[in-house]
Write a structure and sequence with these properties.
- This protein is mainly α.
- It has 2 domains: 14-77, Orthogonal Bundle (Arc Repressor Mutant, subunit A); 86-126.
- It contains 5 helices and 2 strands.
- The chain has a two-stranded antiparallel sheet with strand order 1-2.
- Helix 1 packs across helix 3 and helix 2 (40-47) crosses helix 3.
Length: 130
């Protein structure tokens, strides 16, 4: 089951962060059709957010055709978008994890690392490299 986390400094609406995390988990194969999402109560208890925020995120996922609420049972993933090669994803996840460990070992903090990543990301995609 997915464990939601919030980034209060991101400027992204809370419900949208939940939706994005489900999208990312689906893209990486961490969630698949048939998997249950945490109940609104569980998310509220863990993140201390308004239950309507969770329900709004889940409604968005339903509108996208990715999730479906089953009364009395919970909300379940019913579809996933096409994924890229899982082996390629795993290789790059390992590579990124090594890079992050090296950056931390060299004294870079989370803000430094995020700034470097975002700059490289924007640069790469601005060049049309994808």
């Amino acid at each position: 089951m997915i464990e939601f986390q919030l980034d209060t400094a991101s400027g992204v609406a809370t419900y949208l962060q939940l939706v994005q995390q489900v999208h990312q988990a689906l893209q990486l194969g961490l969630l698949e059709p048939g998997d249950q999402l945490p109940t609104a109560q569980q998310v509220v208890a863990k993140l201390a957010i308004n239950p309507n925020t969770v329900l709004k995120a889940y409604r968005d996922l339903e509108r996208e055709g990715l999730a479906r609420a089953r009364p009395g049972m919970g909300t379940f993933i019913v579809a996933s978008p096409p994924r890229t090669d899982p082996a390629a994803q795993a290789r790059f996840l390992n590579s990124m994890s090594e890079w992050l460990r090296a950056a931390r070992a060299n004294g870079l903090g989370p803000d430094d690392i995020e700034a470097i990543y975002r700059t490289a990301f924007r640069s790469c995609f601005a060049e049309g490299v994808a």
